Every structure is written in structure tokens, then in C-alpha cells.
């Protein structure tokens, strides 16, 4: 979703203008919807605690965070009272009822490890999803930026335990039918206490009615998933397992650079290394500098490999992953 995570982040000033009927496709990313004749409404979750309305949101100065498969993402500061992430779903064609049902399910989830959906807006040509903003950024940035050295083992463990809890909560929702569909390190944000929070929930679900889209190899998707409409809870667990392996190795699944193995994804590379009993070679050099965590890293490696089992039925449920990761945290505290 967030293409900006795969390149150096650039912030550009933009304005979410509601008044013009002409759609501006300029690089600044101005949003000027064409469907002014069809009245939409913004729906807030959480009652009257929000002090801004639709006009405030659309008139606010915004920073473009990126453009992805579903549209554009903005950081919006509304009258200095709230900072939110607004996703404008420009290329999503979905009926009102389907959109609203999904948003209501996601908006009903209130958990510290799931990014809060604060509001949504629907009209014929424009849809908005308003989420919590996390100033510390996401796991991808932390792992692959110049600040990587500051991400120690304790922090990494807190991040993935939090993210696993969030995924387990998601999988319990909607009578245990809800699927995220796009788990990756750039969709795991970090709160002030270094806990991981799953974001972008609901966006994949909205696109299930769209024409079949073949998934490009990203390193995160389970091997059985070749159609974006056919993600499952087991494929979510596979993707989360890849995140665990990414955290342990410090290598990006999208561009792993695995010792010249051009066609080998991160999970396959780690399987091959472990088979040869070279386990120590897979770990991030920054983690290897820390003393006394080797046993915990091996435990997490085993959990990650269980999650990326080739057969979906061989993978653990998200709740089981939480328990296994918490056991590492207990071991670490001893």
C-alpha cells in the first residue's frame, strides 16, 4: 500500500481541497473531487470526542506520505487539534453498502495494537479512510534506515508481540472471518512505547469485488496466494512470519540481496541456510553485537519458519503465535 516505504521518504505539501470540480493530477497531489453533485457524509467512530468535521479535514494542509495500489496517503493536521492519516481510495470501485459494512467492522475494533479507524467518507467517486497517526513511523523504516542500530532486541520483540496481538484481534473479528490481506513491515507502525500496531486494515477487503489482480512477487505473500481476492487468515500468518524473518535478518523481502540468489525470496533463503546448519549466518549483524540473546533469536527464527510453512494447514493461528512470542519475552526476562 505505502509505496513511500520502498524509497527515501519525501514530504510534499498539499491541500485536500473540496470545492473544485476539476481533478488536479499535478505532482503535488491535490485532491479535488469531481462528484460534488453527489452529497456524501463523513462517519466518525468514537462519538463526539473529535473536534473537526469534513470541511476541516478537507481544507487542512497535508503532507503526502505516498501513493500506492489503492490511492494516496496523507498526514493531515487539523486545526492543531489532531493529526491523522487520511487515505484517499482513488482507484477503488466499490458499492456504498459493501464499503460501509467493511468500515463498520473495522471501526468496531478498538485495541492498542490495531491502528484505529477514526472515520470514513463515501461518495461515488471518492472514498476516505481516516486512521490514527504514529509519529515514530513503521517497522520497515526502522529496520532499513540509518537508525537501524537503535532498534535493539528488546524493542524488536515488543514490536512483533504487539503486532501479533493486533493480528490475533483482527482474526477474531467478524465471527473470525476477517482477513487483513497485506501484512508487511511497512504496515506495522510503532507507538510511543515501542509496541507494534497493525494498520491499513479493511483496504484489502474492499477490493475483493474488483477484477482479479495477479500479485507481484513481494516476498510477503504466501505461495498459494496468486489472486488478491483470495487471501486468508493462514496467508496473513505466512506474511507475518516473513516479517519475523525480516526483523531477525535485517533484510528486506522486497529486495533481499541474498548472496547472489536473485530468484530466491527471504523465506526460501532462510530455509536453505538452516538446512545446511548455518543458522548463525542469517541474523542481523546489529543483533549479533548484543550479548546473551542467541537463544531468543533462535526461538523467534523457529516461530518464523513455522509461520512460513508451505502448506497453509501447517501454519499456527495468530493467537498461537502470540503465545510463542510471549514465551520468548519471558525467557528474555529470566
UniProtKB/TrEMBL annotation:
GO molecular function, one term: ATP binding
Pfam families: Pkinase (PF00069)
Keyword Metal-binding: no
UniProt-annotated binding residues for ATP: 87
Domain Protein kinase: 59-331
The entry's keywords: ATP-binding, Nucleotide-binding
PANTHER family with a match to the protein in the record: OS05G0588300 PROTEIN, PROTEIN KINASE DOMAIN-CONTAINING PROTEIN
Protein name: Protein kinase domain-containing protein
Species per Swiss-Prot/TrEMBL record: Eruca vesicaria subsp. sativa (Garden rocket)
